[in-house]
Design brief:
By secondary structure, the chain is α/β, with parallel strands linked by helices. Helices cover 43% and strands 15% of the residues.
Length: 391
């Protein structure tokens, strides 16, 4: 096997970065050299205990309102192309994998200028804006869903690899689901993404207050909230006599998901992938202001697979949520069936599938090159300053 030199470009948010780092792990284990390109938000990824190096490039969103903001963002993206080009040339990188988010735009464009093959990975059920800009430059698009809106009519081949998840999530893949039984406690987990969801802070206490007292007494609740909502939400549960752990952040979410009989969550790509790999039933409330309403499409895919239930926020009330909770928590067979369907929907080897696709694409591209150009792409001598981050 020839060690290859591959750049992974991802925005600074977890939805883009977690899949990129999962692929970085998969490629590094195989002996390949990985370079992560991200913006200033991803600087914390540059830790000494990882086998890849992190390089900061300039990027910004041109979707911000105002002509000046748009011009400033375009200028920053242009400078980011120069940043990325310097990284690609300095470290003789052979291929670029873009995971969406605006830092992927300069990296893929720079790779295109240097005739490097590009693979795009889309985490959601609709092609994101950055990936839509880049799709014409891609050799192949890797998708997380069987059907992905926005790729119709594209000339590039598509392949479903699934969405890579963290190692801590993969470690829970084989843990059996245990449906509620008799009068035993019921673990209910409520997660609203990285910053929590205010809709859950507003609706959950009211909905749980409407449950029959006998059912409510069985609940063992974990709920993620915004910091400013913690006191209010905890006070509401204390008034109900409900056993609840409320926090702005939990560092053991995979373990909590694995222990849950039912999960209530937003429908971001990482959340759905983790629910599927672990195999837990869920009530999904898509964030209504997500770009291109992608969370609704994600949730619809999980619901169609039988792994959860989509409740749009616009029509969700405490009464409706209480009715759904009472019905589901009183029907262990339905919950167990949804857990199995979610588990079947997950792609546990997504990182390896994506690594295989990247390496096949790189091999095919190298085969098209001739003479000294091919030799240059196979040069694996590492520069001495490989750990240096370029900003």
């Amino acid at each position: 096997m020839i060690p290859r030199r591959i750049a992974l470009a991802a925005g600074g948010t977890g939805g883009h970065v977690f899949p990129a780092l999962s692929l970085a792990d998969a490629l590094s284990v195989r002996g390949h050299k990985v370079f992560v390109l991200t913006d200033a938000r991803g600087g914390a990824l540059d830790t000494p205990d990882t086998p890849w190096s992190v390089h900061l490039i300039r990027a910004a969103s041109p979707s911000k309102p105002g002509l000046f903001a748009k011009l400033a963002a375009v200028t920053k993206l242009g400078l980011g192309v120069l940043d990325a080009r310097l990284v690609l040339k300095t470290f003789r990188i052979e291929a670029v994998v873009g995971f969406g988010g605006y830092p992927s735009v300069p990296a893929v464009i720079a790779g295109s200028w240097l005739n490097k093959p590009a693979v795009l990975h889309e985490q959601n059920a609709v092609l994101g804006r950055a990936n839509r800009w880049l799709v014409a430059r891609a050799d192949v698009v890797a998708t997380s869903f069987d059907a992905t809106i926005g790729v119709d009519g594209a000339d590039q081949p598509m392949e479903r690899t699934g969405n890579p998840v963290r190692a801590s999530v993969l470690a829970r893949h084989s843990e059996l689901y245990r449906a509620p039984v008799d009068d035993a406690p019921i673990q209910l987990c409520v997660f609203g993404g990285s910053l929590g969801a205010r809709v859950f802070s507003n609706l959950l206490p009211a909905a749980l207050a409407l449950l029959p007292e006998r059912l409510r007494a069985r609940l063992r609740l974990t709920q993620q909230c915004r910091p400013e909502d913690l006191k209010k939400v905890q006070g509401a549960y204390d008034a109900l006599g409900l056993q609840a752990e409320v926090g702005a952040f939990f560092d053991d979410i995979p373990a909590r998901l694995a222990a849950a009989q039912l999960v209530i969550a937003r429908a971001g790509a990482s959340t759905l992938s983790e629910l599927a790999v672990i195999g837990r039933p869920s009530i999904l409330v898509p964030y209504p202001h997500a770009m291109d309403d992608h969370q609704s499409l994600n949730a619809a895919a999980m619901e169609a697979a039988g792994g959860g239930w989509c409740l749009p926020e616009a029509t969700l009330t405490a009464q409706r949520l209480a009715e759904r909770l009472e019905a589901l928590l009183g029907d262990p067979e339905t919950l167990a069936s949804a857990a199995r369907a979610a588990h079947d929907f997950g792609v546990v080897d997504a990182a390896d599938r994506l690594a295989d696709l990247v390496l096949r694409t790189l091999t095919a591209h190298s085969g098209k090159l001739a003479g000294p150009e091919a030799g240059r792409h196979h040069d694996t001598h590492a520069p001495a300053n490989e750990r240096k981050a370029l900003a």
